[in-house]
Each structure stands twice: as C-alpha cells, then as structure tokens.
Amino acid sequence: MIIDDYIELKLQEKxxxxxxxxxxxxxxxxxxxxxxxxxxxLGTISKKAAYAWTxxxxxxxIFMNNKTIExxxxxxxxxxxxxxxxxxxxxxxxxxx
Length: 97
What we know:
Elements: H1 2-33, E1 37-40, E2 43-46, H2 57-79
Antiparallel strand pairs: 1-2
C-alpha cells in the first residue's frame, strides 16, 4: 500500500540523516586532507559553508522595528484581501511514539 511505502521511506530517511550526521566530521576531515574535494565514481564531495551572522544590538533593534512595520503591512493587506495566498501541500509523516 502506498501509505506503508511512504511511512517506511520517511523512517529510512530519518535513520539515514542520523547516520550522515554521525560521520560528518570524519568526512569533512577527509575532504580537507584531499585538498577540499573528493572525486568518486558516483560524484564529487566538497565542503559547503553555511554562515550565521551575529549583529550588534543597534542593528538588531533596527531589524525589529522594521519587522514590526513589515508585519503590520502584511496583516493589513491580508485583512483587506489585497494580498493573495496560495497553498501547496505535501504529505507529512509523524512517527508514532
């Protein structure tokens, strides 16, 4: 049944993500040892950077003020129906405890 297949794949996905996280540091070390890139018959593995910026208190206050204005404009447009909305749907699986 398609539902059984979907649930089984989601459980496998969760386990695979756990396994990947477990070996990630070793893989990054291997990439570094090989000049930043590893060629494999199935593809290339390289290091990808994700940056997380931390801003000063003054900048954060400006962001918050602008966010408040942005939220008010969005809410007004939603309430007056000037804004349009489109929903997209996908299956969501929550593992039984």
